[in-house]
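Q: Sequence in, structure out?
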Amino acid sequence: MWPPEALEFLRELEDNNDRAWFKANRARYDEHLAQPARTLAEQLTHLGQPHYFRPYNDTRFHARPPLKEQYAVALGHDTPGGYYFSLSLDGLFVGAGLHHPAPDQLERFRAALDDDRRASGFERALRRVRDAGLELVAPELKRAPRGYPPDHPRLDLLRRKDLTVFRHHPLGPWLHETECDRRVREELESARPLVQWLREHVGPSARAR
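A: Exactly. Output:
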């Protein structure tokens, strides 16, 4: 759970997004925003080792503010399929799965969905996350990918290029209570079968990025 001071810090950061202000307020960032996220992540290490994103944006190639206006943690960051949560003024975001799979990973995902036995495992895992309130990212393709019929029984899944599920929680008083940690834990736990399925049937990319 995050204290109310975490949101106060984010509101001030939005109005003072520069390195000098951040340096002067770094202790507040560490105490009120970073430490609660790390405490929560330490309860979830059975899902994967935490990766804590640095607060600075890379501004060399994109015009963007110098500081990130959210605090994000990934679990299992170096594996094919993992978990993620972040806090910003937009709310608490919880997600899991395989973000932006490489072409060979996408090929294996589609081949698995074309096999009834393997696809049934994915569909069971998907029902579990949906029961927990998470949803799949919307499909990017308008029609069936090449090589698959337009009346395929799992066409909706085949049209997806981002293999992730997520839930967005609006800000509320529950963020400052133990309810917050419980929600994140339960939602990420619900995605374990889905992530395990992706690791087994999709796996890491064999192609250079």
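Residues 37 and 73 are 7 Å apart (CA to CA).
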